[in-house]
Amino acid sequence: MDNNDNNNGNLPPLNPRIIIDGKDYGLRAGLTEIEIDEGVVDLEENALAECVGLTSAILPSSLRSIGQSGFYSSALESIVIPNLVESIEDFTFELCSSLRSVVLPSSSLLSIGFNAFNGCSALVDITLPNSITSIGPGAFQDCSSIQNIVLPNSITTIQRSAFNRAQLSWILLSQIP
């Protein structure tokens, strides 16, 4: 199989080099960590997808968006999403099976997209902020290590299969005032 192929057909052939906002961060295949420069506002679609050695990423506080499949199938272990990000796009962290910890923005995050964390089998805990209103289909599907989740009262939509095959022991719904 070619390094640019993928199992589910979601991604086009990927550039072997990581280029973000005009800066070359090196080869996709050899990247183990990345600190994206302050001032970067958008991570393009597939920006760090299939970086199979990438275990650490530091995102700038200036970041406003992470494109669809931004970290798809990477080896990330933890990530802090900057406070200006309003949406976790479709497939952003799909198949990041080593991802154990995610810190979401505390006041700006409004939605989590389709299959955003699908297959993040090591993800143990995630705290959804009080700003979130929508959880997309399959968002936490196959997150087999998540056991508990608190859903804030700001949520108005939870789409089909959002927690399919997550091994939830309990879900706490915040009290509606």
Structure description:
The chain is an all-beta fold. It has a single domain, classed as Leucine-rich repeat, LRR (right-handed beta-alpha superhelix). It is 0% helix and 23% strand. It has no helices and 14 strands. It has a four-stranded parallel beta sheet, with no helix packed on it. A hairpin with a 2-residue loop joins strand 1 and strand 2. The termini are far apart. The N terminus is likely disordered.
Q: Termini separation (Å)?
A: 54 Å
Biggest sheet strand line-up: 8-10-11-13
Give the CATH superfamily.
Ribonuclease Inhibitor
Give helix and strand order, one letter per element, not per position.
EEEEEEEEEEEEEE
What value does the average pLDDT take?
90
> Judging from the principal axes of the Cα atoms, what is the shape?
globular
Which blocks of ≥5 consecutive residues have pLDDT under 50?
A: 1-8
**CATH class division:** Alpha Beta
**Total of DSSP H or I helical runs spanning 4+ residues:** 0
The largest pleated sheet is described as: 4 strands, parallel
Strand proportion = 15-25%
Give structural attributes:
single chain; Leucine-rich repeat, LRR (right-handed beta-alpha superhelix); two-stranded antiparallel sheet; disordered N terminus
Topology of this structure?
Blueprint: E1 17-20, E2 23-27, E3 33-35, E4 42-43, E5 56-58, E6 65-66, E7 78-80, E8 87-88, E9 101-103, E10 111-112, E11 134-135, E12 148-151, E13 157-158, E14 170-173
Parallel strand pairs: 3-5, 4-6, 7-9, 8-10, 10-11, 11-13, 12-14
Antiparallel strand pairs: 1-2
